[in-house]
Structures are given as C-alpha cells and as structure tokens.
Protein 1
Amino acid sequence: QLRSIVIQVVLATDMSMHFELLTQFQAKVVDASALCGLTSRQKWEAMDQAQKVLTIQIAMKVSDIGACALPIEQHMEWNSRMQEEFFKQGDRERAHGLPPSFLMDRRKPGVQNGKNQVGFFKFIVLPLMSAWVKVFPECQSMLNQAQANHKHWEFLASADLDAGGEELISLRASDKQ
C-alpha cells in the first residue's frame, strides 16, 4: 500500500493533473464540513484514508513549487536555475528533431518572462497555496511571500521585462540609490 501511495504522490506533480487534483482537494478536504473548526492536527486525525492521500499529494505539489514562496532573492535564483534546466531540455529535444516543449525553447520567452510568471502565479501557485492555507493556516507566511513574489512579477510584466535582462539590472541598481 505504501508503494501505491508514493507513486500517487509523485505522479501528482504532473501539471496535467493539477486542476483535477486541486478541485478534488477543494471538495473533499478544504470544504469538508467534518473538518471545519479543527486544528491542523485534528483535521489530519479526522481525515479518512482518501483525504489523507489527497492531502499528501497536495503537500507534494506545494513543495514542488515551493520556490515560489521563497524570499524574492532566493525565488529569483531558483527561477533562473529552472529556466536554464528547461532550456537545456529544449536543446536536447531540438537535437533529437523534436520541437521544444512549452517554455523550453531558448528562442522564445521562458520562465523568467514576467508575463509567463504572472499567469503561473495567478492560475497555479496562488490558488494551490490558498487552498493549502485554508487547511493548514500556520502556512500563511508561505502564501504571503508567494503573493509578494507575484506582485514582483506583475511589475516585471508591466515593464515588459524578463527577470535576467539588462533592463532589470539597471532598474534594481536605481532602486538602491
């Protein structure tokens, strides 16, 4: 049974399952009347097996995008690393005669593009973390930081900047003056 749960949890990080899992979590855990008014520990103890597996799946998803809730400097560093990883995958795909996957083509805006990040935060990060915090309110600071990072990406998007561009470096320098 443990093997099955581990497989389910790992597969939950597949973004093609994101909206389905989040919808299930909302319906079966967040909105479960039997869990209302309980502490986080009491909620966990009151959950049935299916709710617990779903909660662990969501915990894995939250941890998978956890860099979105790091302080901005660390978040930007992880974002830069992820973009390079994605571009390397796109390079390998192209070398094998395949078209690069979404966000993995060096010739197109990547994950450090402000507009791409605004959408990712709006549709993936913030709804997921908001649902998580409804069940585990002690994680509110994580959501607060993700919201602050989202605002940072909104600024970059409004200025039509990528996170690593020369324009941003000069803007950061002028902010410090």
Note: Helices lie at 2-11, 18-30, 40-46, 49-64, 72-95, 114-135, 140-158, 166-176.
Protein 2
Amino acid sequence: MDPSLYKAARSGDVGFLIKNKDADVPDDLLHQKTPMDNNILHIAAEFKHIDFFKQIPPQSPLFWTTNNKGETPLHVAARVGCDEGVEFLINHAKKLRIDDERTHYLSNDTRSSA
C-alpha cells in the first residue's frame, strides 16, 4: 500500500481522498492493500475514522472485502468498539439492499460474526 494512502486512512485525512478524487487518480490507488490484506476501510475502522467511509463510492467492493483474517471493515469496527462505524456499515448495506443474512452472519476466520 502506498505510504501516503496508509497514513491518510490511519489519521482520517478525508482531504487526501477528496484531493485524489478531484484529480481523477486511478481507482486502483484506493484498492491497494497492506501485507495483512487490509484495505483503507479496514485501517480507517481500526482507528475509528468513519468520515473516511463516507468518501468511498457506495457500490465499492472495499466495504465487503476481507483481510487475511477473513475480516471485513464491519468486523474491524465491531472488534475495536466503533459503534458509529458498525451502524454506518449496517445502514450502508441496507441502502444497497444487500441480503441481510449475509451481512448479519458474515464470520471471519475465527468464526466471529459482526
């Protein structure tokens, strides 16, 4: 993952996303992953930067991509006690009409569901 992207997700620098969106930076920048397969939303959830989520296009697969532990950003938000993030992601799924059973019972590799 590009260090500036990681730093932006970790610090909650929404301006970085807006600047890159306005500059028509290729989408593949946002889809980069860490060695643990975390994407920018996993990182933002870990540090409770939910405003970062709001800058990602609603249909983006980043919301449901798993890391090497089988965790989605929803799992990470639940694990770190980020209630606002959990609520945002559940409401986001409802808006997209994603099957409720999939989002409510999606489990990670340790069989922990968010």
Note: The CA atoms of residues 1 and 28 lie 10 Å apart.
